[in-house]
Amino acid sequence: MTQKYGHRPPILLTLTILPISLILILNPLIPLIIPKWIFKFSTSLSSLIKEDEYKFPALQANLGFSLLAFIISIWLIPKVSESFILKGLKGRDLLKSGDKLNGPWVPESLGLPCASLYLALMMLFIPFPFSHLFKSHSFSSPETFPQRELTLYLSSLLSLLTATLLGFIDDLFDIRWRHKLPIPIVSAVPTLLVYYSVGGVTSIVLPKSIVGWLSSIGPIYYLYLIMLPTFTTNSINILAGINGVEVLQALIIAISISINDLIFLPIWSINLLNLFGFKNPENGRILNWAIGEVVNRHLMSLYFMIPLIGICLGFLWHNWYPAKAFPGDTFCYFTGMAFSAVAIQGHFSKTLILFFLPQIFNFILSCPQLFGLVKCPRHRLPSYDEKTNLLNPSKVLFDSSPPKKTIIVLKLLSILKLVKLEYDVDDNNNKEYIKSSTNLTILNFLLIHFGPLKEDKLCILMGLIQVLGSLIAFIIRYGVGSWFYGGERR
């Protein structure tokens, strides 16, 4: 039987992962579920659930929610696809044979159910980081409820909810990109206000050669934080056009942030730390200065990133070549805002930018077209060859010699091997002029040097570039950065 919408969900994988996810979610709740009188008569059971027997029990539940997000999203997309098509949220894949006019409709804007599922699971997760405060029994003195952590968590959820709403509005009304720029700023207001209310730091680390390790730049730093969500949302949105590429880059960035968070947590095996020669292995820490507030910040970030990985994996199941579902702008908005929210609340906004190196390259390369120096067509996605089923770089054509400023920009980019130019001779004056240029995107750049390629191969290549960018980011952050700045870069 043919699957009408989406790729066929994996039944065996679902039956395997679902029980594991439920066990991980319920495990931290055991002390709440078991009646208090049992602990009075069972010292052995009491010893099993002491907090110091395992670290970060909420992290176990968070992993369970991530697995649950993966499974639910795989099964959810086919269920809601028909409703989106009936409401007119549909499109045809422009990079498939005959699909421009006669191909099957593919549901669009399916970032909305993904974002809705993510937000629902993150709301259900709210009690878990504070579950030790709800115990009917107690091994220690009562604790004060951590209002600060709860406020940070809820403000991040509010920003994500706003970004999802505004992203879906963009999908409905197809807002021009110039008008999209301020939209993420609106979504970031709750996060920025809470950042300020909890004593947000406005200091930056200066190179060790400059006197004074920290320098406060005040309102300028908040201007940078305001621009951060604008960049993270739109940079993912700009780097699009082939099946799976938006979701894949979001997935790799989320994994990179999670790895960065794990470096700060004291959860590592003593034997493993001894093997690699880390200091203070008895505390399970890779970074010997990663204690207290620094750990809490990255733990909160990890709470948001791990379920996002599950969502991205689940949606990638249907968005991979040949795509049966399109993410729309909603997906780019909510994932980009998730990255900005955790970076702002976790005080690692500069590190986040390093994970966007391919997106930065794509944005800089695109600037001549985005700002009118070079003619910009509505679609800059690669060109599809029906005979070979391969993708080639798409081109922008010039009927006559382009303006001088355009010629200068294109020739400079050609010298740098960033574009491929074609020349022709003007019949009127017998002078050579630029007839066409490849569009200024990283996908076309890759096709110039590695193409022609099949669509899925191009997506894999882009994913490898994203992974390479993350590796470079870690080298800069924990290698070059430590040498250049010195001190404990928190």
From TrEMBL:
Pathway listed: Protein modification; protein glycosylation
Membrane topology of this protein: Multi-pass membrane protein
Cross-referenced Pfam families: Glycos_transf_4 (PF00953)
Subcellular localization(s) per the UniProt record: Endoplasmic reticulum membrane
Keywords: Endoplasmic reticulum, Glycosyltransferase, Magnesium, Membrane, Metal-binding, Transferase, Transmembrane, Transmembrane helix
InterPro entries in UniProt: Glycosyl_transferase_4, GPT
Transmembrane stretches, start-end: 12-34, 54-77, 110-130, 150-169, 181-198, 210-231, 251-278, 298-318, 354-374, 458-480
Cofactor or coenzyme needed: Mg(2+)
One of the record's GO molecular function terms: UDP-N-acetylglucosamine-dolichyl-phosphate N-acetylglucosaminephosphotransferase activity
Catalytically driven reaction(s): a di-trans,poly-cis-dolichyl phosphate + UDP-N-acetyl-alpha-D-glucosamine = an N-acetyl-alpha-D-glucosaminyl-diphospho-di-trans,poly-cis-dolichol + UMP
Known function: UDP-N-acetylglucosamine--dolichyl-phosphate N-acetylglucosaminephosphotransferase that operates in the biosynthetic pathway of dolichol-linked oligosaccharides, the glycan precursors employed in protein asparagine (N)-glycosylation. The assembly of dolichol-linked oligosaccharides begins on the cytosolic side of the endoplasmic reticulum membrane and finishes in its lumen. The sequential addition of sugars to dolichol pyrophosphate produces dolichol-linked oligosaccharides containing fourteen sugars, including two GlcNAcs, nine mannoses and three glucoses.
Family: Belongs to the glycosyltransferase 4 family.
Annotated protein name in UniProt: UDP-N-acetylglucosamine--dolichyl-phosphate N-acetylglucosaminephosphotransferase
Source organism (scientific name): Kwoniella pini CBS 10737
